[in-house]
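Running this now, will post back.
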Amino acid sequence: MELALAHGRHDGLDALADRSGVSRSMISLVERGESSPTAVVIEKLAAGLGVLEHEYAQLLTVAIGVSMAVTAAGWTLANVLLLSRLQAPPSVLGKLDKEGGEMAGHVVVAGFGQVGKAVARHLHAQHVPIIVLDLHPKQVVASRTRRLPVFYGNIFKTGEIEPGKSIR
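Update: finished.
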C-alpha cells in the first residue's frame, strides 16, 4: 500500500509524516506490511492524506478513547472477578501450623509443579515423610482433595517454617 502516493499526492513520506504527525519510519513500516498500525495511527494517516474530514476525525478520536477506556475497565473487572474465584478459603488451603502435625524428619518440598511432584513421588517411594508448600491456590486445593500433604505457603517467607523443626 503506497500511503504517500495515495489520493493523488506525490510529495512523499516526509510530507505525509509532517501532515499526519506519524513518523516517517512508522509510515514506511506500514507501507511494507511490517507493522500493524493502531486505530490512532490509521486515523492520523487518513487525516494526513485528506481522506477523513475534520468532524469525522474528532468523532473517531472520541470513539477510540472510549474504546480504550472500556477495554481497560473490562480487563480490570475480569481480573478482579477471576482472582476472586481462584482464591480459595484459607481452611481449604490448609494450615501448616495446625494440620502439619509433627514435622521432625520431614523433607519440605518447595512447590508442587512437575519437578516438585517428581521429587515427592521419589521420596514417597523411599518412605521419606514430606510436607509440600505451594503458592498456587488451585494446585493446593486439588492436591489436598487427594489427601496429599500440600499446604499453601512460601518456604522462603520468614516464619512459615520454624528452623530446625522441619528441614533435615
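The first strand starts at residue 107 and ends at 110. More later if anyone needs it.
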